[in-house]
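Human:
If only I could read backbone structure tokens as easily as an amino acid sequence. I am handing you a single protein, as its sequence and its fold in token form. I hope you can help me see how the letters and the tokens relate. Thank you; the sequence and its tokens follow:
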Amino acid sequence: MLDSADLELLHAIASTGSLAAVAHASGLTPAAVTQRLARLEAKVGAPLVDRGPRGAALTELGRLIAEQGVQVSALVGRAQARTETYLGQRSRRLRVGALASTVRPLVADGLANVRLRHPLVEPSVVETGSHEGILGVRGDEFDVAVVAEYAEPLVADSIQLHRLMRDPLMLAVPSDHRLASGDAPVGLSGLAGEDWVSGAPGRRHRTQLDALAALAGFEPRVAYQSESYEVALSLVAAGMGVALIPRTACHPTHGVHVRRVRGAPARTLFAVTAPPAARAPMVAPMLAAFKDLARG
């Protein structure tokens, strides 16, 4: 069976017209080139080169094979060029998937820090849920995703989880609410009759609210469903209900007072990446930036 080296040898002979010239160009001895050609002709079972006093010329069969060698060389060259282009792009890209509530405390400043140290980085950010972020890393849609673990542990099959920080849940109430004053942690049992703002049933933060309320002896009446903590804070400010909001998402909002919760429930933020061998180069500085911000 012919291989690319065989095709390249014939193409070189056709181009130079001399076995000695092929030897010189390839760094081999003339005897080594002659031996390679003899093995190739034995493999094919027919002469491929006519040797004469004026040099070497391909036989008709040799020319047919050499023509394929030109095409193979061109394909190899294009493949090499595309490989170099891909690796260059991959070395600069940084595709981030992130929960909306993590963009302000972690992702935005983290990307700014990476760009400061690596000006050629090509970042992109897609807002996504925790489950979708994990799937995105597994499917090579994201290089890194920032996700949250609530009551149920995250599944780390075929990915790596990097713990960033514990993010306490705070109770957000309207500023004229009976619990709007005071600094001591608040128990949830006194909120059984309130309207709540939370996610849809089955969403991770809703599952955690349901579990915490069950421990406090009641089932929360979720009158307003939203995946956005900003929407939740707006509804609380309007006096429509109360909500559990992660501390990193508790931006100062007029009309909202925030209290600590007894027992200090929390979510945990993680960065999700592929295993080390499959990571894009910019993932390492991104992880370092996230961890620095989380410690700060």
User: Anything to note?
Assistant: DSSP finds nine helices and eleven strands in the chain. The mean pLDDT is 88. The two ends are 63 Å apart (CA to CA).
